[in-house]
Amino acid sequence: MKRNWFVTVLFSFIMCATLLGCNQNEGESTANEKLSVVTSFYPMYEFTQQVAGDRADVSLMVSAGEDAHHYEPSAQDVAGVNEAEVLVYSSEEMEHWVESLLNTVENDDLVIVRTADGVDLVNTEGSDHDHDHEDEENQEAIGNINIQGVADHYHTGDMIGLTAELDEDVEYDHWHWYTRESADEEWATVPDQGGPEFEYEASGESFELRAVLFDGEHNEYAASEPVEIVIDDHDGDDHDHSEEEHDHNHGEEGGHDHEHGQDEESGQDNENGTGTIEIAGLADHYHTGDVVTLVAQLDENIEYDHWHWFTRESEDEQWEVVSGQQTDHFEYETTGESFEVKAVLYDNDHNTYAESEPVSIIIDDHESHDPHIWLDPVLAQEQVNVIRDALIEADPDGKEIYEENAEAFNEELQALDEEYQAKLGDAENRAFVVQHQAFGYLANRYNLEQIAIGGLSTEVEPSPSRIAEIANLVEEHDVPVIYYQQGANSAIAETVATETGTETAAMYDLEVLSEELQAEDLGYVDAMRQNLEALQLSVQ
Question: What's the rounded Cα separation, in Å, for the pair 341 and 325?
Fold first, then answer.
């Protein structure tokens, strides 16, 4: 009897100890479970990590080398956000894909953090160089220009060769040519036409043309009256031109039909097409007025050099040949709409030899709102505060930790702001030239002038006329340095620097988590201090 009693008591003691241990382990597991936070791109990750410390598990969606503007969330990303407690992003102007991501996610408990809610996005483009000279055209012209060489009509594919003649001798040589299809439309700058000579391939539609000469201050000095360029293909009839009358049609068997027959106009592959063309120099996006500079690269050495470039605004439209683009280089000033472009190389019989895949030229003016708010150390503090409040909402028990961490990081950001003020405040030259229009908020904060050379590729050497335009810009603003994004190819930068008599330097826009940041274990504050050192080469 005593033995049974002893066994019962021992068994009860063991059960109690077991249950107590389970409860203790469960409590420890709950205490060690971290807040799950997903962030969009690098600055959001850095700011969130600084505030969260060890209390949260912070992950980054847009990883090293990827572009935050046009990132496409994967199925794994969607699954991660579905399991997360907090999602942190900057704004729809920066991360265009967030809205579609949130429409896919099924997570009713998710705390969504839009850090731009603490900041008023503004248009910072006022200090940028306007390549279309809109303001310049409003100046009253002094001289008169006559356009010589206009024919009574042209056919599609004809080369239009004209000359702008001024009624006096002047030292100015800054020319622009403008076209429009009708008097109801705005004038558009014709790319790669930087002198008094105009060469342009007729593309099928009649248009008006004018020439403008600008003085040393980029004011309109002289302008021509509009002239009409009439394209008349005689309703598809070859008009029975003989070679003596019109050397534009080489006959149906001779190969090149300057009316661009179905094969050449559409750029479709035929049985002779064998080569492969890759297009280099494509940027993730462009702004209106940027000059898109591309090059078509063939995977073999051949003697053919008859190139055409085609564009279309969507897959539902026909390809149209781009006038004045007859080499492997493409240089084109954007007008505000995204489009596709492809290159086609023809053989000596004018059959398609090789054709590239279409590439998308994405025009993103950020709806006139600059999204790069994180590059202003003061506005970055506002973003940190928004993140702090969201983490407290998701994890009230961590309130004290989040507040302490946010305060400490904001003190670093405030010290960074004071460094910028101290080193840039007394500078006489306050202009700086950048490749990518990303530093508008930084310029506004410290009373600087950002001048953007829109569309300048770091992969493709610009044409002589483009380099001349950049050289004029450098001379006008007396800038010693052209800035490129950190991590960009430096070879073309060095070419431009040599041709324009400038130096080059790199600046972090922090849109991408660069290899340099990772390799050197640099954070946001480190990168911004390097930006300050680089800026002092121009702002001094």
Answer: 12
